[in-house]
Amino acid sequence: MPVTRSTLPEPDAGALAHSARLAAHLRAEIQAAEGAAIPFSRFMELALYAPGLGYYSAGADKFGEGGDFVTAPELGPVFAACVAEALAPVLQQIGPEALFLELGGGTGAFAEVALKRLTELDALPDRYAILEPSADLRARQRDRLRQRLPPPLFDLVEWLDGPFPHDWQGVLFANEVIDALPTPRFGIVDGEVHEEHVVIDGEGFARISRPADGFLANAVRHLEQRLERRFADGYRSELLPQLPYWIQAVSGGMKRGAMLFVDYGYPRAEYYLPERDDGTLRAFYRQHVHADPLRWPGLQDITASVDFTALAEAGVGAGFDFTGYCSQASFLMGNGMAGVLERIERIADEGERLRRTEEVKKLTLPSAMGERFQVMGFEKEVEFGAAFLAGDLSFRL
After folding, report:
1. pLDDT digits (tens, 9 = 90+) for 214-271
2. DSSP string across 66-125
3. Are 197 and 123 in contact (CB under 8 A)?
4. What pTM was estimated for this model as a whole?
5. What does UniProt give as the signal peptide span (predicted)?
6. Full set of structural domains in the chain with CATH
7. Disulfide: which of 256, 259, 265, 380 matches 169 by Cβ 3.0-4.6 Å?
């Protein structure tokens, strides 16, 4: 359950000073905006990605037990090894020209394990590219991979400012990326679609409602048609009408290959349940989940769950064939987990064996990440369906 802001640990003086600098930047943009308000999606974009100031652009630790949240690759090598097992056949089908594009490389933990496992599977790509907008995270990734990969593997890695600018073949992988896309927030007021905006409120910020522009209003009405019901007055949630354009942009000129997305979320009918009337927006700060995304700009992650039905539509709309949709637990079990468990049993060091066993539990148990995270795949001129033979949930979309 989300905690209240009063129970959150207080940032130190340096962190508060950093947040104050970003808050001043936000206030200046709000003051310059028409009506002294900016859409919540713009606030989220700046809070997360403002150069040198945003949460993902600055230098504080974010990942792991000492950061604000733990992602699957940070738990240990199991997740990345299984993903590599799933994607290896696609890389092998494409051959020597295959490229690997990872969106948002975190600490570099995924790339490290994936490249080592792809070497074992004889499925190394020609290049391993990380699209990472944060200069700080790029530096951390580069340092980690330089230290932990043999030179021939490290030489395969490159960092990109944007998607491949040319036609390409290979695989695209994104773990917990879509949940951090700046999302519009809509609400229904007297039967009309409104959009949440952010205004200055004393020393902080507040959210208000304003009539939505035609783009968002039409997207909400289209969503209601798909759901075959109207949203009640007072209903609020998130919607990413830009998702199809984002998928087209990041896949770029991929002519042959596969895309794989891992994130937390729901199929559309579950995402927009009548009782989920305040959406899924939340913030992560020092392992605490809370409901105040305007608190301490730059010091906390802001996320919203993924509408996997919308993701399926966006992938198909971008020219890919839908491959499959399943829970993270099913995906890992179907892609090398059995071999991982066998190797864990052979670990002589009892402490290490227990750590790896605990890692598997966190990745697969329904009470941990196993059911809360889901996996979706797409293919183009390759066969990727075998990766989704275990526990396919496409019928829920």
Report:
1. 999 999 999 999 999 999 999 999 999 999 999 999 999 999 999 999 999 999 999 9
2. TSSB--HHHH-SHHHHHHHHHHHHHHHHH-TT-EEEEE--TTSHHHHHHHHHHHHTT---
3. no
4. 0.94
5. none
6. 72-180+244-268+305-396 (3.40.50.12710)
7. 256
